[in-house]
């Protein structure tokens, strides 16, 4: 009779230890926290916390590519980063454009009207740590072209994009949303898809 009790007690003890060793569930976001897309979201992963912003980006009348075209038309240069934001209840794209004069300007483009809301200068030194401005200007593929390739490959709508430095050349990382899921698509300077996850 004593042995079954010992066995049951041992099972209960091991179960308690196993439960104690599991990691706690992730903390809920604090009230009033602003949802922003995160880099590194895996393919097929739910974008909890970012869903409303991604949905707003997908429902926007102006595409990310059109926002790039608008921002680039404000001066000579190429877009190097685009993020979708909702600021003061206005859905907008924040497009950083590197000018041929070496200046980095961020244009806020209304995602429903396509109009530039405001433009502001940014320090270029903080943006280009390993990548040279000439690398961006000389790349065979622009950010706009990389976005089009990524959207076609992933079958969704781009909600963010940026230029990166990879193996001494330009590479683009595009976040493409489809419903509540996102994928990161990397495109090289020749317009070829490097990875998708």
TrEMBL record:
Pfam families: PepSY
InterPro entries reported for this sequence: PepSY
Region Disordered, residue ranges: 21-53
Keywords: Signal
Taxonomy, superkingdom: Bacteria
Domain PepSY positions: 61-120, 142-190
Protein's UniProt keywords contain Electron transport: no
Signal peptide interval: 1-20
Protein name: PepSY domain-containing protein
Organism: Methylobacterium isbiliense
């Amino acid at each position: 009779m004593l042995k079954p009790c010992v066995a049951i007690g041992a099972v209960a003890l091991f179960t308690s230890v196993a439960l104690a060793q599991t990691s706690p569930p992730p903390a809920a976001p604090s009230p009033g926290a602003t949802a922003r897309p995160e880099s590194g979201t895996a393919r097929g992963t739910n974008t909890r916390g970012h869903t409303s912003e991604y949905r707003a980006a997908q429902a926007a009348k102006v595409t990310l590519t059109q926002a790039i075209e608008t921002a680039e038309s404000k001066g000579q240069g190429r877009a190097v980063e685009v993020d979708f934001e909702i600021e003061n209840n206005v859905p907008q794209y924040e497009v950083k454009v590197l000018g041929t004069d070496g200046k980095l300007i961020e244009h806020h483009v209304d995602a429903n009207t396509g109009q530039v809301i405001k433009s502001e200068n940014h320090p270029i030194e903080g943006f280009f740590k390993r990548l040279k401005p000439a690398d961006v200007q000389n790349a065979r593929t622009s950010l706009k072209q990389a976005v089009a390739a990524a959207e076609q490959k992933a079958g969704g709508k781009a909600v963010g994009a940026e230029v990166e430095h990879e193996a001494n050349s330009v590479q683009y990382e595009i976040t493409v949303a489809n419903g509540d899921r996102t994928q990161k698509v990397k495109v090289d300077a020749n317009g070829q898809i490097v990875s998708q996850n």
